[in-house]
Amino acid sequence: MPTVTVDGEKAFEVEAGKKLVLAIEDAGIDIMHKCGGNARCTTCRVEVLAGEVPPPEAAETERLAREADLAPNIRLSCQIRVEDDVWVAVLQRSSVTGVPAGTRPQD
């Protein structure tokens, strides 16, 4: 099973194929996700610090292209299915913004 490390604060195993946003949330880590996992809002952005993630599909690529000055290692966690070990930084947290996380994304 792949290991996900978040911000160096927690590492946990996850079933291969699980959406990264769900793996992070299920591990008890605060992460924003306002659009339900549909690649519309970008609130679930993560910075991929190390490891391998599948390449982005069209919906993610198109949505991230509308944002200014994003590094190429910024991804939408709702669009990543974990297949290998990965280390990420969560970029938006409900506890910091004061905004509820949103509807749990579909698997």
Automatic annotation (TrEMBL):
It comes from the Bacteria. The keyword Nuclease does not apply. Its cofactor is [2Fe-2S] cluster. PROSITE patterns: 2FE2S_FER_2. CDD domains: fer2 (cd00207). The keyword Iron-sulfur applies. Keywords: 2Fe-2S, Iron, Iron-sulfur, Metal-binding. Residues 2-94 form the 2Fe-2S ferredoxin-type domain. InterPro entries: 2Fe-2S_ferredoxin-like_sf, 2Fe-2S_ferredoxin-type, Adrenodoxin-like, Beta-grasp_dom_sf. Belongs to the adrenodoxin/putidaredoxin family. This is 2Fe-2S iron-sulfur cluster-binding protein.
